[in-house]
Amino acid sequence: MIYDRKPLPTTLTGTLTHSVAPSNIALIKYWGKRDATLQWPANDSLSMTLSQARTETWATIAGDGVDRVSLLGSAFSENQAAKALRHLNYLRERTGFTQRLHVETWNSFPASAGIASSASGFAALTLAAIGAWSGAHSLEHMATLGYGPSTLANLARRGSGSACRSLHGGFVHWEAGESPESQSVTSLASASHWDLCDLIVVFSQQAKAVGSTEAHEFAKTSPLFQPRLAALPERLHIVRRAVQTRDFAALGREVEAEALEMHSVMMTSTPSVHYMSPASSRFLAALRKSRHELGTPAYFTMDAGPNVHVLCERRCADQVLEAIQALATDAAENQNFSIIQDAIGTGPSVHKTEVPLRC
Ligand code: DP6
Predict the structure, then answer these.
(1) Structure pTM?
(2) 3-state helix, strand, coil in the chain (%, to 5)
(3) SS3 183
(4) Cα–Cα distance, 300 to 253 (Å, whole number)
(5) pLDDT tens-place string over residues 18-70
């Protein structure tokens, strides 16, 4: 259910900066912040960049001197539009660019449903804005103008934390560091290192009731939060090693435990946040049963939503897809669901594009 047409902006014409930024799925979750204003996470996280679930954004200098952001194909909620406009203000403040922008953006997947649309969205917005202001025609060009991946990650992070991990392809480690300023985002391994697939079972396309930014704030009230933080360095070590040695079973075991732990923190915080739906919960149990009884070579993870990411190696993807179609049909109990067939991706891109005037 990837909307795989070639999108074109409908309100912008002329020479536009066009950015494409992928979503990412966290293997070690970013959950809880030490400082929400400075976007300083409570812990390190590690993600896999996707290729199909992505945001495409076009930007141009505003002729009328007023920022405008719009979402192609549907309407921005007031909150989303306000967040995007705030981010443009923040970028201007940090970079010294002053011009207002007209921006149009498009998601290849349902937004706000636990597929990290804020990650791809704020990564794409940052790239498009910097491209429009600086005149850069590629990421390489942007780097020569002083906007390399680290600078871009720092800028994107302020829009949404997980966006900083979408500036690289492959496996990406966001280190919390000892201070907000010493955070870093680095590539652990490129996409060609390990061809993993992420089959995303979409049980619901509804925007979630409690946004992740709000829910991050509750994390520290959970009695499980401090024990989680204390144990995370060990988990990170195991996951990093599993990626480096391409040990799928070791990775899967840890990633499932990690997702369940984050959801336990969510459910035991005050107020309690419950992102898992009955269908997703039935599906998790069924996938585990299928793995134990039939050897289905797949593991799950979930972000802040009811949809389930099923990870598998490319060589097993057909077998896993067939298995999870049957499992999801049972778990959904006559409700609709769909599956996005995604995989590890190489990261974002930026270029200039000409959109002719329309009559
Ligand atoms: C559950 O990046 O959406 O997806 O920084 O407040 O925008 P803000 O939060 P966001 O949080 C993502 C949380 C997560 C786990 C993860 O992606 O690591």
Answers:
(1) 0.95
(2) 45, 25, 35
(3) coil
(4) 9
(5) 999 999 999 999 999 999 999 999 999 999 999 999 999 999 999 999 999 98
Give 1's pLDDT tier (boundaries 50, 70, 90).
low
Residue with tokens 């896999």: 48
Nearest CA to ligand 1 atom 4: 303
Q: Burial, 25: exposed, middle or buried (Cβ in 10 Å; 0-12, 13-18, 19+)?
A: buried
Pocket test for ligand 1, best of 28, 29, 30, 217 (most atoms within 8 A of CB): 30
CB 348 within 8 A of CB 166: yes
Place of tokens 């990626």: 243
Q: Which atom of ligand 1 is nearest to the CA of 36?
A: 6
Q: Higher model confidence: residue 211 or residue 160? A: 160
CA neighbor of 2 nearest in space, from 83, 130, 117: 117
CA of 113 to the centre of ligand 1 (A): 12
Angle at 124 between CA 119 and CA 129, to 5 degrees: 135
Q: Residue 274 is encoded by which pair of tokens?
A: 């419950």
**Distance from C-alpha of 333 to C-alpha of 180, rounded to nearest angstrom:** 46
What's the chain's average pLDDT? 94
Residue type at 275?
A: Y
213 Cβ inside 6 Å of ligand 1: yes
Do residues 185 and 167 touch, judged by C-beta distance below 8 A? yes
Tokens 């829910």 label which residue? 215
pLDDT tens across 292-328, in order?
999 999 999 999 999 999 999 999 999 999 999 999 9
Cβ proximity of 173 and 44 under 8 Å: yes
pLDDT at 168: 97
Angle made by CA atoms 35, 56, 354, in degrees to the nearest 5: 130
C-beta of 216 in contact with ligand 1 (< 6 A):
yes
Identify the residue whose tokens are 């391994």: 189
Quick check: CB of 162 below 6 Å from ligand 1? yes
Nearest-atom number in ligand 1 for the CA of 162 is 2
Q: What are phi and psi of 50, to 5 degrees?
A: -95, 175
CA-nearest residue, atom 12 of ligand 1: 162
Atom of ligand 1 nearest to the CA of 159: 7
The answer to whether 164 touches 154, Cβ cutoff 8 Å, is yes
